[in-house]
């Protein structure tokens, strides 16, 4: 009973992200609960993530197999590309993606993809524009490295580039990174060529973290096909 009372009290103080999900002006209200309520919320998010990831992998298995065949027929190299990214509490993990390029950049100097990038293969061009290349990250969710919804994980090299330039940059690592996120459905996906672009993305990430709810996650998932897939910034 005490746990339920604490949870209800916390929820009453939080400005839920889902109430203004499709608006750009999202008020920032600290979601700073502690103890049993926070543990319950984290547990609920983790269970939801694994349930959705498992179901999606089963349903999408035929598509994943077709994509794998297309990649092998189109160019030389592995089907899956693994790259080091920063996750929860800045822990480094290997993110899984379908290989879309002729190169396998995973070092201290990673060049962001650009429109008309010659490194992108023919199959990779479609996979990137449709975001199908991200589907292997469902495995990362099962591993516990990622969540379905959260701040998108950046390459380690990109974090090293922007960390000294943006105040409190690493606060976005207070939650597990996601396959999709609040910033992405608002159009802030793709390359971040300037500090201003990255700063705006970070602001959206922090708004998500500070107002997170399960219902908000669900609405972001539902919005992703309409706002995240085939986005003009995806290439």
Short description:
The protein has 235 residues and is mostly helical.
Commentary on this structure:
The chain has about 240 residues and is mostly helical. The protein has one domain (about 45-225). Helices cover about 45% and strands about 10% of the residues. It contains nine helices and four strands. It has helices at about 1-15, 35-60, 60-75, 120-130, 135-145, 155-160, 180-185, 195-210, 215-225, and strands at about 80-85, 90-100, 145-150, 180. Strand 1 (about 80-85) and strand 2 form a beta hairpin. It is globular, with a radius of gyration of 18 Å.
Based on the model shown, name its key terms.
two-stranded parallel sheet, 9 helices, 46% helix, disordered N terminus, 235 residues, globular
- Work out the radius of gyration: 18 Å
Range of helix content? 40-55%
Hey, roughly how much beta strand do the residues contain? 5-15%
N-C termini distance: 51 Å
What is the number of domains? Answer: 1
Largest sheet: 2 strands, antiparallel
Task: Compile the SSE list and pairings.
Layout: H1 2-13, H2 35-59, H3 61-74, E1 80-86, E2 92-98, H4 122-130, H5 137-143, E3 147-149, H6 156-162, E4 178-180, H7 182-185, H8 195-210, H9 214-227
């Amino acid at each position: 009973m005490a746990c339920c009372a604490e949870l209800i009290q916390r929820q009453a103080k939080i400005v839920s992200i889902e109430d203004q999900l499709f608006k750009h002006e999202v008020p920032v209200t600290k979601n700073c609960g502690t103890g049993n309520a926070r543990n319950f919320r984290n547990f609920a998010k983790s269970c939801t993530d694994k349930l959705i990831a498992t179901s999606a992998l089963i349903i999408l298995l035929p598509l994943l197999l077709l994509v794998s065949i297309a990649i092998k027929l189109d160019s030389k190299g592995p089907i899956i590309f693994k790259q080091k990214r920063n996750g929860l509490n800045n822990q480094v993990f290997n993110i899984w993606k379908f290989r879309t390029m002729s190169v396998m950049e995973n070092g201290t100097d990673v060049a962001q993809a650009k429109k008309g990038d010659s490194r992108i293969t023919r199959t990779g061009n479609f996979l990137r524009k449709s975001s199908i290349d991200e589907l292997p990250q469902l495995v990362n969710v099962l591993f516990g490295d990622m969540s379905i919804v959260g701040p998108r994980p950046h390459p380690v090299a990109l974090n090293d580039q922007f960390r000294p330039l943006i105040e409190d940059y690493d606060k976005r690592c207070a939650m597990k990174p996601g396959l999709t996120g609040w910033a992405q459905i608002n159009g802030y996906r793709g390359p971040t060529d300037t500090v201003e672009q990255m700063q705006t993305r970070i602001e959206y990430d922090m708004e998500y973290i500070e107002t997170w709810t399960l219902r908000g996650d669900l609405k972001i998932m539902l919005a992703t096909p309409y706002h995240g897939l085939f986005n003009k910034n995806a290439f």
